[in-house]
Fold:
Amino acid sequence: MTEMPQSTQVRDPHENEFIQAVSDVMTSVGPVMDKTPEYRRHGITERIVEPERIITFRVPWMDDMDRVRVNRGFRVEMNSAIGPYKGGLRFHPSVNQSILKFLAFEHVLKNALTTLPLGGGAGGTDFEPKGKSDGEVMRFCQSFMAELFRHIGADTDVPEGDIGVGSREIGYLFGMYRKLRNRFTGVLTGKGLGWGGSLIRPEAAGFGCVYFSAQMLDTRKDTLERKTCLVSGSGNVAQATTRKLIEMGAKVVTLSDSSGHIYDEQGIDADKLAFVKRLKNIRRGRISEYIDQYAHAVYTPAAPDQATNPLWRHRAQCVFPCATQNEINKQDAYLLINNNVKLVCEGASMPCTANAQDIFIDKKILYAPSKAANAGGVAVSGLELTQNSIRLSWLGEEVDNRLKIIMKGIHDTCLAAADAYGRPGNYLMGANIAGFIKVADAMLDQGLV
Ligand code: NDP
Ligand code: 2IT
Structure:
């Protein structure tokens, strides 16, 4: 085990999410550091945890009542050793520097695992899009881009969506960038299909996550067919995960948002999912409205003061947390294990606490960390950039085939790295080690910068 670079805890003792993400990686890469003394000599761990640059800025905008509002914008440019900074923009009231540094740090390794030339970054703001009119969201996005445009570019830093940023927000952000720069480039991904977006990009993180889970089950001669699955969240990643699970013959019985979750014992089929997509993407409603349409389902409000999340109390063989970080804690993990869970595959970024991860690994269930399992999203963002550069749009089937190949490659790379370091079947160590080595070697090659 390699200790945390001292600088992280000394400089940023309050950055809990960032420290969690760094310690997850440092715990895995100890044997790598021992085997490759150059990494220590060249200060790789000290450098990899320090962002190359952080931009913080004021975002003033006018609400529908003509009141001036001010939010805080960020872009964390973490590491560009293997390509332009790449990662999402999160719009959520909880956003702070710690959360964005954790996301950016995750991206450095996740993007390396895709094999595409993508560095790592992340950004966002404490603006809450929920409950805002389209006009308010547009004015906010325009003000956000009025500063961000100076720092991004197709060859420097390429943002995309994350929580609270979907096709509507990417459209407003891109429109403002294009106006300010008078240039039409692949500066953002997740673009609309008619103006530079890629087929399969909206589905990529969820589809990729399900492909990864199928690969894991295959190592135990098992499949997703007829497996009961718990999915959390009801946004981009949760919807695509649910769709692909249905297509692969599994039965999804839950979805959630920050207010609570629904349990549908009969399973969420394609029609019910189409209802959820209209509810969440167009009407921007709450998941509780599912039971108005499907009265046999049960809605349970969130209970943040309770030790366990009620969603994880349901019995299922496969679990796909697709909402947010730290949504499965130690007690939730024990509940799932006691209910005989076989597989936990992370669609969201860092949804399991360190204790929960330890329990899954100790009990030898199939456990895939987010930086491997949800890398399909950023991988297809990379493919969107490729299509923009060659000024072509590939067919959906072609993009999906490439996504499958990339996810299988990540799966096999994780297993090979875990094997090479004496921890067969440990996807967490495998992902951390393989991603770290790729970035560390690039940093060594490029000198002390
Ligand atoms: P969306 O905004 O589309 O959906 C987020 C979902 O999670 C919503 O249902 C939301 O509920 C719920 N949620 C958000 N915050 C909380 C919270 N604090 N507690 C409980 N529920 C919460 O985001 P995405 O689907 O894009 O992102 C979800 C996760 O997947 C994130 O961790 C993100 O980093 C990760 N990811 C996203 C990718 C992408 O391309 N978009 C790619 C790979 C990973 P509510 O509406 O009530 O806020
Ligand atoms: O967490 C993620 O992988 C994303 N939000 C997508 C980032 C991207 O640049 O595609």
